[in-house]
Automatic annotation (TrEMBL), chain A:
Residues passing through the membrane, by range: 38-54, 61-79, 85-108, 115-134, 163-182, 214-238, 250-275, 287-309
Full protein name: Branched-chain amino acid ABC transporter permease
Superkingdom of origin: Bacteria
Coiled coil: none
Membrane topology: Multi-pass membrane protein
Composition skew (Basic and acidic residues), residue ranges: 331-346
Family matches, as InterPro entries: ABC_transp_permease, LivM-like
Keywords noted in UniProt: Cell membrane, Membrane, Transmembrane, Transmembrane helix
Subcellular location: Cell membrane
Main location: membrane
Region Disordered: start-end pairs: 322-346
Automatic annotation (TrEMBL), chain B:
Protein name (record): ABC transporter ATP-binding protein
ABC transporter domain segment(s): 4-251
Transport is among the record's keywords: yes
Domain of life: Bacteria
Gene Ontology MF term list: ATP binding
Keyword annotations: ATP-binding, Nucleotide-binding, Transport
Species for this entry: Prauserella alba
InterPro entries, per database record: AAA+_ATPase (IPR003593), ABC_AA/LPS_Transport (IPR051120), ABC_transporter-like_ATP-bd (IPR003439), BCA_ABC_TP_C (IPR032823), P-loop_NTPase (IPR027417)
SUPFAM superfamilies, sorted: P-loop containing nucleoside triphosphate hydrolases
SMART domains tied to this protein: AAA
Xref: PROSITE patterns: ABC_TRANSPORTER_2
UniProtKB/TrEMBL annotation, chain D:
Organism whose genome encodes this protein: Prauserella alba
Keywords: Amino-acid transport, ATP-binding, Nucleotide-binding, Transport
Record's protein name: ABC transporter ATP-binding protein
Highest taxon, organism lineage: Bacteria
Molecular function in Gene Ontology: ATP binding
Automatic annotation (TrEMBL), chain E:
Compartments (UniProt record): Cell membrane
Assigned keywords, A-Z: Amino-acid transport, Cell membrane, Membrane, Transmembrane, Transmembrane helix, Transport
CDD domains cross-referenced by the UniProt entry: TM_PBP1_LivH_like (cd06582)
Entry's family note: Belongs to the binding-protein-dependent transport system permease family. LivHM subfamily.
Major location category of this protein: membrane
Record field: transmembrane: 12-32, 37-55, 61-84, 96-116, 136-158, 192-213, 225-249, 256-276
Topology term for the membrane: Multi-pass membrane protein
Highest classification ranks of the organism: Bacteria, Bacillati, Actinomycetota, Actinomycetes, Pseudonocardiales
Family annotation (PANTHER family): ABC TRANSPORTER PERMEASE PROTEIN (PTHR11795:SF452), BRANCHED-CHAIN AMINO ACID TRANSPORT SYSTEM PERMEASE PROTEIN LIVH (PTHR11795)
UniProt name for this protein: Branched-chain amino acid ABC transporter permease
Amino acid sequence: MTTSTFSPQRLGTLLVALALLLAPLTLGGQEYVLRVLTVGATYAIAVYGMNLILGLTGQLSLAHGGFFGIGVYIVGLLTTDYDWAFWPSLLVAVVVTALGGFVSGVVALRTREEYFAIFTMAMGFIIFLVISRWESVTHAHSGVSGVKFPEGFGLLDFSEPIVMYYLVLLFLLGAAYVTHAVRRSGIGRTLVAIRTSEDLARSIGINVGLNKQLAFAASTTFAGLAGGLFAAVQGFVGPSAASIDLTFEMLMFILVGGLGTVLGPVVGTFIVLFLFEFFQDFEAYRFLVLGPIIVALVIFAPRGIVGYLNAFVGKLRSRGTGAGTGSGGPPEHRSSDTATDVKETL
Amino acid sequence: MTLLEVRGLGKHFSGLHAVDDVDLDISAGRITAIIGPNGAGKSTLFNLLAGFYRPTSGTVRFKDRDITGMSPHRTVAHGIARTFQTTNLFEDATVLDNVLSGRVVRSHSTVFDAVLRTPRHRREERLNLDKAMAALEFTGISEYRGEIASSVPQEVQKRVSIALALATEPELLLLDEPAAGLTEEETGGFAQLIRDIVADGVTVGLVEHRMSMVMSLADHILVLDHGKEIAAGTPETVRTDPQVIEAYLGADHQEQEGAG
Amino acid sequence: GGGGSGSDTIVIGYSGPLSGGAAAYGKNIQDGLQLAIDELNNQGVTVDGEQYRVELRSLDDQYAPDAAATNAQRLAEQDDAAVVFIPHAGGIQAAQELNSSRTEFLLGAYSSDPKIVEQGNELTMMIPPSFESYAEPFVDKLTRNGESRLGLLGTASEYGQEWTKLVTQEWKSRGGQVLSDNSIDYGTVSDFAGPVSRTLAENPDVIFLGGPSQPTAVIIEEARRQGYEGSFLLMDQAKFEEMEEFTDPKNLNDAIGVKPVRNYDDPGTEDLLDAYAEKVTKKRPVTSEVALNYQSAAIVVAAMEQAGSIDDPTAIREAIPDAIGEVGEQFHVSGFPTEITDAGHLRNQDLEAAYRTPDGEYEYLPIEQPDE
Amino acid sequence: MLTVRGLSAGYDAVDVLHAVDVTARAGELTVVLGANGSGKTTMFRTISGILRPSAGSVEFDGTRLSGLPADGIVKAGLAHCPEGRHLFAKMPVEKNLLLGGYVRRRNRRRVHELLAHVYELFPVLHDKRHHPAGTLSGGQQQMVAIARALMSDPSLLILDEPSMGLAPLVTAQVLDAVAQINRDGIGVLLAEQNAQAALRIAHHGYVLAEGRVVLSGTATDLLDDPEVREAYLGV
Amino acid sequence: MTLFIQQLFDGLALGGVYCLAAIGLTLIFGVLRIPNLAHGTLYMLGAYVTYFFLVTVGVPYVAAIGLAAVVLAVIGVLLERVVFHPLRNAPHTHHMIAAVGAMFFFQAVAQAIWGADFRRMDSPISGSVTILGAQISWQRIVIVVTAVIVLGLLTWFIKRSIHGQTIEAIEQDRTGSSLVGISPSRVSMLTFGLAAALATVAAGLVAPINLLAPTMGDALSLKVFAIIILGGLGSLPGAIVGGFTLALAEVMTSTYVSAAAGEGIAFAVIVLVLAIRPTGLFARAVQR
Ligand SMILES: Nc1ncnc2c1ncn2[C@@H]1O[C@H](COP(=O)(O)OP(=O)(O)OP(=O)(O)O)[C@@H](O)[C@H]1O
Ligand SMILES: Nc1ncnc2c1ncn2[C@@H]1O[C@H](COP(=O)(O)OP(=O)(O)OP(=O)(O)O)[C@@H](O)[C@H]1O
Ligand SMILES: [Mg+2]
Ligand SMILES: [Mg+2]
């Protein structure tokens, strides 16, 4: 192999980014597809949040849909009932979900593994119940209509679907970059250390509690940001935007894409969403097909699509450079493998 | 100089006195060993010193500062590192990444540095890499740096866990049964490594059942049984203490040692 | 345009809950639309001199507003549907955000929530009577003998809550006493005995309740079992004809609610009942969900014929007032609309409700609808 | 008699055991020596069916074991007392032991005989029989593990480093018990770091290095072998 | 007072149903560490299959429940073989998503076979008795009695019978279990079968006082999770105590506070219990 700095990962990232940038141009005014893309991009931002807490620290937060819903409703209610502008509302959504994540993390993170998952599932459900029942503030099931578009700058008019799409895309790229930077840095190493063994992490001076709390807060912040954007994209929002189903959908996106990877969330989100749209023609029967597909995916592709590509590239590379030892590089792709390959016959 | 001073330390687990009113002084630059039967409270004592457990009574002072009940991430920052009785590594990361994780406590760059790739961040990453490599060289395992931790031999894994502890730049290193499961030959290598560590200016606390190692290395020995001190002193005094022989070494121990 | 919708096809879009908790409801509406479309195709549809086949294209939204909006956009753009039916207030409102600004389509709104025509959306056609019409006459009827204590046992859905508020207001305005609110989620409660005994413990004269017919019937049965002898005030979601299938009809005596479809003697009623039994199922009765959507699908197609356009939602909407009179008699099945208000509400001046007497007979009472 | 031929096994498709031949004769005590990570545990795990071999065969008294699941192998009379003990920590000692007799559950009388026998061998377990196994000291837990393996009435007992992490006094006690078990007629295949003590009670021995047998012979031969003396006896 | 007695009985009956459903879930968790989110759909299928035998085939009520339990046991075993066995070494996130996939599938199957509309199933046990002024239906008494009997038998099975103990053994150490000759595979199947059968009994008992719908398991699913958390994941006595506690809390809260509070109580309980005891009420501390 040559000594060029060619990196398949970088190429892959570039390709995905390019595809997303150019997608609207190839649609020829198909606003429905643009809508699916835009909505998908908002979900993907939230999924990056889930990636931070789940992919890097190994904690499965099932309150994610709930925090997304908080973002949705803060922007939804502030821009309608209180007549705020969009941007300050979004800021409030981000700050509230960040603080909310940090504070609730104090209690939530006392629990571990399955307990954490179920604790956060309950939290998510309580958020949903509050949103869907607190009639006087959230209008419960009536939902919120007439959510404002973001105020434009100069020529940018966000009521144009395509402009809105690029706005969401900008945030999405930001989310992906933050994930990348965090993973590459000592912070990423800290989080992965916590995921692998909390006791050991503690013994080398990592403040496990605080770091998990920060990671949790970061993840809820992403969810809140995504929710705020989602509200503007939809115009009308109801309590289903905070439902537990949404959390599981996001989890599905991330598993299909590849847990802990930089591209996984965006790839997984778009693939699954388009799968969902595609199977819409089967109406109620689509779950007869989708259910088994989901099961098959986690059984046969536990590392997700991007996880596989990474492993594949890794293999090619180590074959190319001879022994895999001594590369001394950062943990980039090793740590993304969550599948345990224990071949015991038990 | 006394680096660590323990007074009246106790830890109860629902009625069980795992550690009971223990006093201990660890002098700087020396090796202090703690021995005793299984369940005597040795590991618990280490857990108390490193902040993993909160004591139910007593005090721990380190470098004249009270660190009683301080959480592990702070004791490590103050300079106490430890290894575990069962080797514990970040199993799916490389050896080098394992040791790099030990640098976290000495790093100061934040998420924002990482996202913005500030010069401080880059400088620190370079420094961390150097220090980690130094720790690998020191423990003699730098050739394994690119391998996945769980796939290297046990002995190397044990060395990795020591390198990881050293990467946190400790002043006091607590080793919990570093030689468990090693052959005699390998044990010799570990004894040498521990001597090197001390020579490098790090004080060592050692829990070990391998008497050949303890007796040849330790400057001072504390013997625990049922959480209580039953003897303390130099290897010679401890070895011949009838209480220690009865509770721990066994009558035919002398004879076995003699044969070796 | 997407696959299948050639130039000789009119696609009617439908997004509703086809799976999940409200699937039965969504399916009823789908059946009503499909039956109408079959009948229309039978007769032949000609717009602007050209023959068309009408086709129903359905997508599942599981009652979620955002999914409904996405579906509506897909139906309008991919399948060139000029009309999209949605049967839940959330989805309707989300679609209204869309058809007022982005993608034009006429919204067939099946929800009795008056809010949906208060928005001033110009491309909305509200199908059922507003539930506001019912509260006053219902309360009127059930307070004739000096009943004064009202128990509340409605479903906890948005719609149920709006109803509860309305009835509460109405009841109080007559000086009656409203007891504690025991609204529950009809879909998730696994044992209704508790809420019922709680309600009965306060000795109500009248109990307001209602949600999907089947659980409503079970609750009524439970109340009777526990010895309740008073009357029931039923919200419009619960249908007598369905409840009769689920519980001994005796239990339903002394209750007021919407008029069963089979009790209409409109020209097309019999045929619809037969067609439903033949093509859909014999096991379930035809309800107003089936019947009202059956009627409105015919109105929409007639409006296309009137407007001479199959793809201009505005023109179609504008043609509805004229089209109403043109719809064939066989589509008149349960109080066919006589007008469409400016706000877009299909209405029949002679709306009736039904009171099931203590002897199990149905009496009908006229309903006066508020002005819009 | 246990015959291992050309056995290879490993983790993640990488073999750590390469074509190993080992024989453990009926009623004898066979010891396996080897540095850390030389593959002793891997070999034992493969023999007892926890791990699948990538090549080779395991035969026991004429029946082929390789390919059987772990529970089938226990039934065939081979008991494995694993590294790390793997006790049922929250169950009382006696339940651990009774579960050890799971494969003999149809013969209740035999199970109770065996129970009486292991209590005789380790009286301290009788005192502790109602205590959860996890609360016992390390040495006592090791005794439970050995006793539990004996409860399946094996004709061959595989012991993987029974003295690991035990205090010197207890190590001696455990090895005494192993010798006693062997004297009672049960074959033993033993991995042990305490080579000297192990060779003293063994009949035959093997030395593993990097997954291969590098030396084998009678216990006395090995005790005298200069290489063994240096690497394992610390002389 | 009458109201209180009435609610107490309702609570006990509900608790019986919750317990039966929760025990299966907690056993599955104990043995396989799987939070089986599809458990509610097994309960739903159990109800429909009971309905099938009772109404469509026309066998007696008790036999219908028994037959349905057998059918569901087979389905449970299949679920274990096809979905969870291949995932036995995967992290719990994968289990959860696989369970969600299975849940989608089962619901779609039920809807395809029985339709989306509600079904009603009458039990032959009708009428009620008056106890201290409260009207208690026989069906509820049957539920409580059946639950107590089944729970008693089950506790005996797990604690005393060697087959039951294999479940507990695997819970505590998988490798150890296989080394004493227990086949983890077989026990996993046994556990899944048992869990599905118990859920079916619960469903068969409760269906006559409610309705059948493809989504009937959704609400239950969340509640049984609350219960096993309350009791400590994997703990059998925990599930029993948790089941009755939660049912009574739910009934009493909605009686004396408000219906909405009653609905939320399960989740409030999870959050509160875990905030105070992060590993549930009955879980024991583990040594580091
Ligand atoms: N977290 C805990 N909860 C309850 N008991 C504990 C806990 N940690 C330790 N113990 C108990 O405290 C006692 C001392 O245990 P410790 O691990 O300190 O012994 P040790 O001297 O290190 O023994 P060994 O030589 O076998 O490692 C034991 O009886 C043990 O069971
Ligand atoms: N679960 C595992 N996954 C991957 N590699 C493993 C695993 N277990 C052991 N190994 C590797 O297999 C090799 C042989 O290990 P094994 O445990 O069989 O040696 P051993 O002789 O029993 O050593 P010890 O004396 O430490 O018990 C070692 O290199 C080890 O790192
Ligand atoms: Mg210890
Ligand atoms: Mg070993």
